[in-house]
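idk why but the lab printer keeps eating my pages so im just putting this in chat instead. protein + cytidine-5'-diphosphate:
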Amino acid sequence: MGDTEKKVKLIDSDGRRNDGRMPHELRPVKIEAGVLHRADGSAYVEWGGNKVLAAVYGPREAHPRHLQKPTRALVQCRYNMAPFSVSDRKRPGPDRRSNEISKVISEAFSSVIFLEQFPRTSVDVYMEVLQAEAGTRCAAITAASVAIADAGVPMRDLVVGCASGKVGGVVCLDLNKDEDNFGEADVPMAVVPRTGQIVLLQMDGHLTAKEFDQAMAYSLGAAQQIYELQKDALRRRYSVSLEEFRAKEATASPEPEEEPKYDVYHDDQPGVAE
Ligand code: CDP
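predcted complex ->
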């Protein structure tokens, strides 16, 4: 442990963390689906101080063509951090970290999307981190998953990203920025909640086997909570459309009575002579 780490008190005498949470508590999470109209599907996630936007296109013809797979679709993901998303300006454009995150997220979605139904195509997933405060890859996966569902791309289930780690010797769920910087370990993962399949697992730092089990138990429990928020966001998106549709139907003026297509003869009609 370095000098800086010693100075930062991450767990107080009541066992609370520096943002007031207990070790098993998540930061507040908000999810909205269908926030962009140009993309086929989109979502916005606020997770603690993280703000992430995801946009999805496809399945559409894969470009460049030499990447096309004759028997299945590709999943091409791009995770990007905006220059203004962190306290020091981030140099725009891809770097090793964002390339790595894009790759592991592509692999995670490749195991849930029914790729074999769309040969030669690509599902393009863009994740833009507008504000970062630790755990952006998990927030990005969570947003992208809702955006893929919003685009109507068939998949086995939604995917939820969540991280746990170790802070001041205590295993904690969902590390914040100080905990990520000065803690001992961080384990981001992504899970398919319906089956429990783990589709992404990374580890930064060291945990004992027992601590690792505790971290996984925290993340899997939290994933179920986030899964409910994802489904709720999708329900809100489509139930609003249905409500709007019904409201339109209810207020629509009744069909105008059809004008007769021929002259109707009335006895008393002026100007009509026998
Ligand atoms: O964001 P995530 O935890 O998935 O990835 P990380 O590589 O562990 O980064 C942790 C945090 O460091 C990010 O969420 C950002 O808040 C911060 N960071 C930064 O300030 N500047 C960067 N170039 C990259 C990350």
